[in-house]
Design brief:
The complex is a heterodimer of chains A (about 350) and B (about 450). By secondary structure, chain A is mainly alpha-helical. Chain A has a single domain, classed as Up-down Bundle (Formate dehydrogenase/DMSO reductase fold), CATH 1.20.1630. Chain A is built from 13 helices and two strands. Chain B is mainly α and about 450 residues long. Chain B has a two-stranded antiparallel ribbon. The longest helix of chain B is centred in the first third of the chain and has 44 residues. The C terminus of chain B is likely disordered. Classes of the chains: A mainly alpha (about 350), B mainly alpha (about 450). Chains A and B meet through helix 3, helix 4, helix 5 and helix 13 of A and helix 2, helix 3, strand 2 and helix 13 of B. The structure holds CIS-heme D hydroxychlorin gamma-spirolactone and protoporphyrin IX containing FE (2 copies).
């Protein structure tokens, strides 16, 4: 494996972490939006706030990390992607601003109307941002990003069936992950009603994600033959792992077994991302730009790998500390939602 | 060509606007945690509940400004691709390593800030204090990494060849480029100045409105002391920077001092209008510019005439005014520090006059103006180069159209964001005032907040 491949691996690790943690974060925003206004939405939203309040900031540094590794390790690819996909990436950036501010201000807003507005912004942006990121991945997989400063089509590069399906898939996958996580969080908070509430949603999102994944494969077959063929070839084991874990999660949740569901849901998502990575190899932009051709000079690649090594040594323990403190309830921002039994809030049939 | 020119204008405006916005929050992100920890330390060491109360309140402000800072910073990362693909595409592999290092610092900062802010209730007092210390250190590290990139843009080195695609990189030479020793400390000091004077100004305003309790006095004194210590150091560092620039980036210096012809015995002008015949109006001090550059009036100063018109920075009058405003504000702030020092020396207390409080109240805004002026000097003064003498800004900009649209959207969005930020910070402080000191506001107390596990 060349040094360039190693840096591409680092890139994929960053993208994976962002997809899992950032994706779940976005999904939580979607659930917060769908929970609806008024009293029925209050408790699930309280759970969501309580669960992601302390970690959402750290979740999003993965995006920065991925961007920086991309522009340092593979500057040409970065420049080509960002100039051709100017529109969806600008919209994703605007979504990030709306989302972050919505989240930051929903607690500080005093009046109910301001708070409702912040919640709405937070929810809408949580849908738009992953959607546009998905269209970007679709454009890359569909070989619509040529090398150079805006040499691709500004509009059709991302406004095409493959991009749209992937955009939707990104949104739904986040929703699925987040619902599975929120089932565990509801348990941690001691609120069985919310646990049931999110089990139902996890099942729904899993079915939607499965459907979209199949649709994606069909479009991929038509539109992005190179990636499709390798998904059937080298990457097939990963695709199978993903499907199997996805099915297992459905089974566990349906049976009311909570143990292991979280891990398997993550495995399902990670496997699909790595399948994509393997399918693209040795290209960064399929059939357009190889990893080696895009790679930075050797010293830079070495430096990126060293920095990544240091990051593993210092950031991973710190992250572990944060998540441990959160899971042990040492660190909390908002009040934990209280269990209100079947008398109030969302009963098993509510929502 | 015309659309490209306007694209360049739009891209520069958007970059300047978003950076100018981010840098205020970034300054708070660098220095506010330090103020918060000083108050926290004092509170624990001297068993001072007022100081602890301040630490707790400031940590809530940090939570909000940090979130908005992270969001605006993410936008900047996108803009490296959205606006300047030519720059990042060619030099991303050169300066990118610094951003990768910055990534580590931001990660740690985000993690420990969360532990600190949300750990008031359940962590032990000193463990909680120590959770805040990494935030201060990573803030400095993050500022170093980012500003070093800007220094590299001013003094590029450590890569070859200098034309065409980069084939080899020397990361050490990139990181420790010649502009780092003055730019990085200057920016970090600026962050402490801005934060200190802004924070002190808020409490001074409160005291002017008659709230003269101990919390207000402490809230004024802690940040003001830090800022007043930093100000004279900032003057010295800025002076060093100016002299280094006269040597390393002579055209930038000529632009900001409006030196038309290379000559000796150059007059220093304070303000005035910059024309192709030299400065009109303004206050002139004969020979002083030469003296500042080389300690002697016979020092030669490079003029704009040494390069073709295409290589000269635009808007010289604005550059000149920005520089003079920065120096002027720094000097006035030093006087404010002297006022405080003399008061302290004579009465062991800060001057109680309303004029002193008024001066402190506006000092924060003045420091922010100096901060923005400094960046105008650095960035506009470097034009037409994005990488000094290596790459032109016009070769870096994206070919994609529609930047005026995104710029318009961003201005609207940021205006709303800034307004909301100020409104919610004010609402927070009003709430603290009205609620007085409810149990939840006193950290570490057994009665602070609900006991874990009990439904509320
Ligand atoms: C509170 C803010 C503040 C204050 C009081 C000052 N500065 Fe400053 N200055 C900055 C904030 C700043 C800055 C915004 O932080 C800059 C922009 C780039 C940098 O590194 O610092 C800057 C840049 C900057 C530059 C350009 C550096 C470059 O282009 O690389 C010079 C020559 C000076 N300063 C000189 C001074 C002098 C002589 C000062 C006082 C007598 C002074 N500054 C006070
Ligand atoms: C943080 C405070 C900063 C402020 C307020 C600031 C301000 C500005 C301004 C005013 C411009 C427009 C120049 C013009 O109109 O002629 C600009 C351009 C630019 N700045 Fe900065 N800058 C800052 C820091 C940085 C840093 C740290 C970097 C790099 C890491 C950077 C990179 C750029 C780039 C790429 C451009 C566009 C090209 C150009 O016009 O020079 N800036 N910035
Ligand atoms: C002198 C210039 C700058 C300084 C001192 C600075 C400092 C900071 C600080 C302290 C933060 C943490 C957030 C906060 O506390 O408010 C931050 C956030 C951020 N900044 Fe800047 N910044 C500067 C310019 C830039 C530039 C030019 C970029 C462009 C790439 C950038 C990218 C970011 C990013 C991506 C974040 C978010 C990181 C996170 O999520 O924690 N910054 N910056």
């Amino acid at each position: 494996m060349s040094e360039a491949d190693a840096v591409a691996g680092v890139l994929l690790v960053g993208a994976t972490m962002y997809a899992v943690f950032g994706g779940a974060d976005f999904g939580a925003g979607l659930w917060s939006l769908l929970a609806g206004g008024g009293d029925s939405g209050r408790r699930p939203r309280a759970l969501i706030d309580w669960a992601i309040g302390p970690v959402w900031e750290a979740n999003h540094v993965w995006l920065i990390f991925t961007l920086v590794v991309l522009w340092t390790g593979f500057s040409t690819a970065f420049a080509s992607i960002f100039s051709t996909l100017f529109i969806p990436l600008s919209l994703a950036a605007l979504g990030i601003v709306l989302r972050g501010s919505g989240f930051a201000f929903q607690h500080t807003a005093r009046r109910a109307r301001g708070r409702a507005l912040a919640v709405r912004f937070f929810g809408l942006a949580s849908v738009l941002t992953p959607f546009f990121m998905g269209t970007v991945v679709g454009a890359i997989a569909g070989e619509r990003v040529p090398v150079g400063n805006e040499t691709g089509d500004l509009v059709t590069s991302w406004l095409n069936p493959l991009s749209l399906v992937l955009g939707a898939l990104f949104v739904v996958t986040g929703a699925y992950l987040s619902a599975v996580f929120l089932v565990s969080e509801a348990r941690r908070a001691g609120t069985p009603d919310l646990e049931r509430y999110f089990v139902k949603r996890a099942l729904g999102a899993a079915l939607a994600a499965g459907t979209l994944a199949v649709a994606g494969l069909i479009v991929l077959h038509r539109d992005a033959r190179f990636v499709f063929d390798s998904l059937e070839g080298d990457a097939l084991p990963l695709v199978i792992v993903s499907f199997a874990s996805g099915l297992a999660v459905l089974f566990l949740l349906h049976r009311g077994i909570r143990r292991g569901a979280r891990v398997l849901a993550v495995v399902a998502v990670v496997a699909v991302i790595w399948a994509w990575g393997v399918a693209q190899h040795p290209y960064l932009l399929p059939q357009v730009l190889t990893i080696d051709a895009a790679a930075a000079p050797g010293n830079t690649l070495t430096a990126v790998l060293i920095v990544f090594g240091i990051a593993l040594v210092v950031v991973v323990p710190a992250l572990a500390l944060l998540f441990t403190l959160v899971q042990r309830n040492f660190v909390e921002e908002t009040e934990r939602p209280a269990y209100e039994g079947r008398t109030a809030g969302i009963g098993p049939s509510g929502g | 060509m015309l659309t490209l020119a306007s694209n360049l204008g739009a891209a520069r405006s958007q970059m300047a606007f978003t950076l100018g916005f981010h840098i205020i929050l970034a300054s708070l992100g660098v220095a506010l945690p330090a103020m918060m920890l000083i108050a926290n330390y004092r509170g624990l060491r001297r068993d001072d509940p007022d100081a602890l109360l301040l630490a707790r309140r400031w940590s809530k402000a940090v939570a909000v400004t940090f979130a908005v800072g992270a969001v605006t910073g993410t936008v900047l990362s996108f803009e490296f691709g959205l606006l300047w693909p030519g720059f990042t595409g060619r030099f991303g592999s050169v300066f990118g390593v610094l951003f990768a290092i910055e990534g580590i610092f931001f990660f740690l900062e985000a993690i420990f800030i969360t532990v600190y802010i949300f750990g008031w209730k359940y962590l032990s007092p000193w463990a909680h204090f120590w959770a805040g210390v990494p935030v201060v250190i990573t803030g400095l590290g993050g500022a170093f990494s980012v500003v070093a990139v800007n220094s590299w843009m001013n003094q590029p080195q450590g890569f070859s060849p200098t034309s065409g695609a980069v084939a080899s990189v020397d990361p050490w030479k990139v990181i420790f480029n010649p502009a780092v020793p003055y730019e990085v400390p200057h920016m970090i000091l600026a962050a402490y100045l801005v934060t200190g004077f802004l924070l002190a100004g808020i409490y001074a305003t409160g005291m002017l409105r008659g709230r003269r309790d101990r919390v207000h006095r402490l809230g004024l004194l802690i940040p003001l002391t830090v800022a007043c210590i930093a100000t004279p150091i900032q003057f010295a560092v800025g002076d060093t920077a100016a002299r280094a620039i006269a040597h390393d980036q002579p055209i930038k210096f000529a632009g900001m001092e409006c030196v038309q012809q290379t000559s000796t015995h150059v007059t220093e002008y304070i303000f005035g209008r910059c024309t192709s015949n030299g400065v009109e109006g303004g206050i002139g001090i004969p020979g002083f510019d030469s003296f500042l550059v080389g300690w002697s009036t016979s020092t030669q100063v490079t003029g704009l005439d040494s390069v073709p018109p295409d290589d000269r920075p635009p808007a010289n009058t604005m550059l000149h005014w920005a520089f003079d405003a920065m120096v002027g504000i720094c000097s006035v702030l030093i006087l404010l520090g002297l006022w405080l020092g003399i008061g302290w020396w004579r009465k062991r207390d800060f001057p109680q006059s309303r004029w002193f409080l008024r001066a402190v109240a506006v000092s924060g805004v003045a420091a922010v103006i100096a901060l923005e002026c400094g960046w105008i000097v650095t960035e506009v003064g470097r034009q037409p180069w994005i990488v000094y003498n290596v790459m032109r800004t016009s070769d870096a900009v994206t070919q994609a159209n529609g930047i005026w649209i995104t710029f318009g959207l961003i201005v609207g969005l940021y205006a709303a964001l800034g307004a909301t930020l100020i409104i919610s910070l004010r609402a927070m402080s009003r709430r603290w005032r009205q609620d007085g000191r409810e149990p939840d506001d006193v950290p570490y107390g057994p009665e602070s907040g609900p006991i874990p596990g009990t439904p509320t």
